[in-house]
Design brief:
The chain has 103 residues and is mainly alpha-helical. The chain has one domain. Helices cover 67% and strands 0% of the residues. The chain has 4 helices and no strands. Helix 2 runs parallel beside helix 4 (89-102). The chain is globular.
Length: 103
């Protein structure tokens, strides 16, 4: 059983790594001028850090990107991060990024 769990964890980690690469490309395009967006500007004096992204962020990003996210589902996701804001300020920045790009 531990072997199966380890394989599943490695698969999830590689998916998260691919997601982070996709986001890094968006950041690079913005910084180089290829993209005219400003989603990755410094927020509150700190730069956006892709290492703060989680599997939950990845799932919501792809749901929103594919227009499969339900409004209530997004509200719950958003509320969770506002409740955790004092503890997880960096994760709140990830939410802002997703919100700015796709809503």
């Amino acid at each position: 059983m531990q072997r199966i769990e380890k394989i599943l964890q490695q698969n999830n980690e590689s998916e998260l790594d691919e997601f982070k690469k996709e986001i890094q490309k968006l950041i690079d395009d913005e910084l180089s001028g290829k993209s005219k967006t400003a989603h990755f500007m410094k927020i509150g004096g700190e730069e956006f850090n892709i290492n703060d992204l989680t599997e939950e962020d990845m799932e919501m990003y792809y749901k929103i990107k594919s227009k499969k996210a339900e409004l209530e589902e997004f509200k719950k996701y958003k509320e969770k991060f506002f409740l955790e804001k004092k503890i997880h300020l960096r994760r709140d920045k990830c939410l802002q990024f997703i919100h700015q790009i796709y809503l």
